[in-house]
Amino acid sequence: MNSSIDSKNNLLKPHIPRHFIAVLVACLVMLVLCIIASLVFGSRAISFNELIAGLFHQNVDSYGANVVRQRVARTVFSLFCGAALGISGALMQAVTRNPIADPSILGVNTGASLFVVGGIAFLNISTATQYIWLALAGAMITAVFVFGIGSMGRGGATPLKLVLAGAATSAALSSLVIAIMIPRSYVMDQFRFWQVGSVGAANWSSITTFIPFLIVGILLGILSIAALNALALGDEVAKGLGVRTGVLRLTAALAAVLLCGATTALAGPIGFVGLLATHVIRLILGPDMRYVVPMSAFAGAIILTISDVCGRVLGSPGELEVGVVTAFIGAPILIIIARKAKVRGL
Q1: pLDDT in tens, 316-336
Q2: CATH of 71-221+249-341, one of 2.30.38.10, 1.10.3470.10, 1.10.1760.20, 3.40.1180.10
Q3: Under DSSP, is residue 188 helix (H, G, I), strand (E, B) or coil?
Q4: Spatial separation of the C-alpha atoms in residues 26 and 37, rounded to whole Å
Q5: Which residue, 317, 298, 225, 213, is CA-closest to 27?
Q6: What is the pLDDT of residues 197-252, one digit of tens each?
């Protein structure tokens, strides 16, 4: 009992977890290796000379050099999306005190998908900015709805009730997406590739559109980090420490929805990245959100980028979308986490 109290009190003390520097260095090394792998490997392998020419010699117009330049935008986009999903997962788990909270599990991705397909069908949207604003609206409305349903009844928003509310909402919204698409073949053609989740269509224009939402989401998340440690001790204790829990949840949830909504708008509903990244970091460094949130960004970027590389290599000469790869890896890990955690709160 005392050890449990001591471990929770440590969340409020400014200390550096053991092995933090080693973990940070390892993440940076893995990030560099992932970037190199993303530039070199794919349906066509790139030689060292082609890599150098594509990166540093813009006057070289060979096929290999042009492939490298295309992969640079794809790599940057996958890094940004992975970091956004990692932070979003960490914030969602902290706000809901749910160890298996994730945008895909709580139905947020599906809400974004519904608004995007509705925009394609009824508003004829086509630009990245239009996709983002509609996806954000759908993600926010769905997040509020799921949390409201999960908060009903005795005990408030328990982890189990949130997961059940998210699963039910996701199923209902998926049915609406299908109902909109079936009679409209042009919508289905435009939506089906986006729905799987892929970073293959990345370009510098979409990256430029994505960056402001990424920056705002990260800043809001940073503002919430210290208070989230107090929230882990329970609402009553957090209030006693001067934390305005309602404002905190709203700020952190807004940051999470901004990050996952903008990512979903441009890359499709990629699932399990936030779940995997946050659990890996928490397993290594402990529950302190001052380290979990920023390191989840590194872990998310690594997971998504290496998943994209695996999809390209395994699907050669075509490619396997990254959303399929992350689902294939994440689904069994989710089952393991759920069995061990027994759907307890954080």
Answers
A1: 777 788 888 888 887 777 677
A2: 1.10.3470.10
A3: helix
A4: 16
A5: 298
A6: 678 778 888 899 899 999 999 999 888 888 888 877 777 777 777 778 778 888 88
